[in-house]
Amino acid sequence: MFSLSDFEQFAQQSLSSDAWSYYSSGAGLQQTMKDNEAAFLRYRLRPRVLRDVSAADTRTSILGNTIDFPVCVGVTAMHKLAHDDGELATARGIVMNQISK
Questions:
Q1: What is the CB neighbour count within 10 angstroms for residue 67?
Q2: 70 Cβ partners below 8 Å, 6+ apart?
Q3: Are residues 35 and 58 in the same domain?
Q4: For every one of its 101 residues, what pLDDT tens digit does the chain have, with 9 covering 90 and above?
């Protein structure tokens, strides 16, 4: 996967139609969802090819705590639409990421 649209296509193929409908929509006129998509389009990744990454360090500090892999998971609900273990599976994934480092 190389882009958000790749991820969306995979999700649409993997989820039930009810789950995809829920995850791919917003409330009311979907204005917040549209605003969020526009905000993400303003970000650009700078490709850095042919660089020495042998000493790459992904650690960062958040609120005084150092974490190895800076991925945050926002508070959401309805994870059971995508996985039988729901939010518990998400929490396990976050904890296992930190333990495996």
A1: 15
A2: 58, 59, 60, 62
A3: no
A4: 777 789 899 999 999 999 999 988 889 999 999 999 899 889 887 888 898 888 888 888 878 888 777 677 777 889 999 999 999 988 888 776 555 55
The DSSP 8-state label assigned to residue 60 in this structure reads E
Looking at the structure, tell me whether residues 73 and 95 fall in a common domain: yes
% helix / strand / coil in the chain, to the nearest 5?
45, 5, 50
Residue 90 CB neighbour total at 10 angstroms: 15
Q: Same structural domain for residues 20 and 58?
A: no
Contacts of 4 (CB under 8 A, 6+ apart): 40
Number of structural domains, the chain?
2
